[in-house]
Amino acid sequence: MSPQINADSRPALATHVRLQHDGVRQQWVVQAPERLFVLDDVAHAVLSRCGNGLTVAEIADQLGIEFDAPADEIRGDVLELLQDLADKGIVHDQRA
Amino acid sequence: MTSAPESPVDPPLALLAELTHRCPLRCPYCSNPLALAGRSTELTTEVWLDVFAQAGRLGILQVHLSGGEPAARRDLEALVAGARSAGLYTNLITSGLLLDRARLERLRQAGLDHVQLSVQDSEPCGADRIAGFQGAHERKLAIAADIRAVGLPLTLNVVVHRHNIARVPELIDLALALDAARLEVAHAQYYGWGLANRAALLPTRAQLEAATAIVTQARERLKGRLAIDYVPPDYYARRPKACMGGWGRRFVAVAPDGAILPCHAARTIPGLEFPDVRQTSLADAWQHAAAFTHFRGTGWMREPCRSCNRREIDWGGCRCQALALAGAADVVDPACSLSPLHETLVAVAEGESASPPPAFRYRSLSEGPKIA
Known about the structure:
The structure holds two protein chains of two kinds. Chain A is an alpha+beta fold.
């Protein structure tokens, strides 16, 4: 059973994962062994806030301000993204 | 589709740095070539550091420090530091045998991102027989604990074949017990040493299907706990693998002696000249060297690849396998069911895998096996 991410989770990048700017292609990427995820603006905004002790709800609030969108709409998208990355072993819940 | 060369070519994503062919193990499916490079031909520290700096500038994002056993290089710590400062995600692919906790700690401090440790089986007797090294398995289990103890993330890698394929469940349990975040279950690939040992290694179709089912179930069950990568063998497939993600599209390899290669087995293909990294830059080789442009894209293809709707998915399969099995590097990979040789290949696979396994021809520096 995969760990469930919820609004109170405090997501952090797994130790084998590196968030990095790819200067040649001008994009943000997440690197893992033999894996590469190219991030869009929202994914980068989420992942750059992981590991700071913030909850998913707090991350969504910050994104609401940054992207000028209602936080409760953004929260669903953030949860979906983080659950997908948790299933892939890219992020984990620091509470767990 | 036209066969005009794309211009400019997208830069590669990953570098396979084969630091040395020296290795204490003698696995009969070793991916190194039959003609192993001796220590005297190996690149210096300075050349490797320049290769990593070039790789970073070119747009390469990951480096796999491999061998042989890369820890046979005494300058491994310096190489890791150089790769890391070039911005590369730095992955050490190791047998573990020449490492200890102090060295792992130094590698971590140098910036190593990840360790991929091989085991040969889940039980010591079989593992040591494959490795050709008494006590190897026990040593590997100890080093796996050291890897995690210094805080490095771990992938457990196991090459599977007829002698260990029944123990895929135990291998999954072992990965969990060793606190690996990832397990790579890779079927032996039949080039070089592996091809010379094919009859001793190839599983039956039933064994393959059972292992595939176990991995598929475990992936779902362990989602978020253990990522499992699975590399199937292609002898029983209908479509070939997109070898290296397509020739000259994503990967570049540098051999211990400095040859710049589209894949680590490419030197088996006659008529291709491979640039030396001491004379040609990685960027120049990637963009312009015939070794890279010759099989890049679809322009080189003959039928049935040329008009196949999967030509930009499979990329014609593997050039080295086409050469090894069909005698020509520019024909369809016989792993593809559209190859006129496919049925023969399947019959050979079924025949060999159902017969008693012959003795291994172990990897060795001095006596390469004779190729039939």
